[in-house]
Structure prediction request, 141 residues.
Amino acid sequence: MTARSDFSAFVAPPPSGEPHAAAADAASACLDRFTAAFNASDTCGMDAELHFPHVMLSGAQRLDWAGPGQHPHDFFAKLKATGWARTQYEKKEPVLVANDKVHFVVTYTRRDAADVVLSTHVNLWIVLRIDGRWGIALRSY
Prediction:
């Protein structure tokens, strides 16, 4: 992400350009790739769909990842121990769309091998296009 020193330029409306629907579709495809990698237990594939620094918020806590390779080595082992077999989107609702940024309210379920829902999660994820590449920049749980 680029820092801007002029706050008024930072909050000014973005220039028009690419239709917002195309931006939402491209950002949504990034989420799909991330989840496909997640379901394959592929942390490198997941990292490929993130922008760094990457920010995660949970309650008032903030986790910043400066670069890839930050997932705990036992992340998927612990998740599978809960009975998890895959994650499925129930809804990806774009709630703020611009040419280079899409905020999604993401609803997903974690399911076991019999397709029974183990848990449902509703989060805010922000996907940015930086240097022509869409990536998840922030996830709020």
The chain is about 25% helix and 45% strand. The first strand starts at residue 50 and ends at 58. The CA atoms of residues 35 and 87 lie 7 Å apart.
